[in-house]
Amino acid sequence: MTPDKPIIPGLKRRAVMIIVLLLAGLAALMLLPEYLQQNSAAVELTPQPCDLHTGVCEGILDDKRVRLSITPGPLHSMKPLQVMVQLDGINAQAVLLDIQGRDMYMGINQTQLQSPVQTFSNESSNKSSNEISNGHDNWNGKTELAVCTTGEMFWRAQLIINDDTTTYTTWFDFSAH
């Protein structure tokens, strides 16, 4: 007697491949929710009506609050600008300011803001640890707006804030000459 031959040549191989593919698909479906949760979209803090030329702008969500100030006002192109951000309810590890032309591409203008804690961590300072620890919620940096040939340019200042587990974002529109 001859060994059993499959009725259709390659049937065993096809069946094994189908089973392997089904198992791989099942594993992917089981791991997909965890992967998507790790790479979830940023949490947006609602920007409140404001004027960056004259004061502070706020983004708010529940007990979380972000305040942005850019000075000196009124804001003009090609002038050094001081950026200050104050955070409440967010233990930030990094804060990035991304300034983009709202209606026209004006290149990349991103500033990684610094916390006084980062500034003082590598310096010897006469400040007490209490003074330095108060800086955890405050971030600052310097930037400049590009020149626009149209005269008045509309900008969007977006803050991207990362803590240990979440990315927060908020934005404010303003104009400059």
Order of helices and strands: HEEEEEEEHHEEE
What structural category arises from helix and sheet content? Answer: alpha+beta
Termini separation? 94 Å
Question: What kind of oligomer do you see?
Answer: single chain
Helix content: 10-25%
**Tally of extended strands?**
10
Poorly predicted regions are 120-135
Beta-strand level of the residues, as a percent range? Answer: 35-45%
Give the C-alpha Rg: 26 Å
Largest sheet geometry = 5 strands, mixed
General form: elongated
What's the rounded overall pLDDT mean? 82
Strand order of the largest sheet: 1-10-9-6-7
Describe the structure using short key phrases.
elongated, 36% strand, alpha+beta, five-stranded antiparallel β-sheet, 177 residues, five-stranded mixed β-sheet
Describe this structure in words.
With 177 residues, this protein is α+β, with helices and mostly antiparallel strands. Helix content is 22%, strand content 36%. The chain is built from three helices and ten strands. The protein has helices spanning 11-38, 116-121, 129-133, and strands at 43-44, 46-47, 57-61, 64-71, 81-88, 94-101, 110-113, 138-143, 153-162, 167-176. The strands form two sheets. The chain has a five-stranded mixed sheet, with no helix packed on it. It has a five-stranded antiparallel sheet with strand order 2-3-4-5-8, with no helix packed on it. A hairpin with a 4-residue loop joins strand 9 (153-162) and strand 10 (167-176). The model is unreliable at 120-135 (pLDDT under 50).
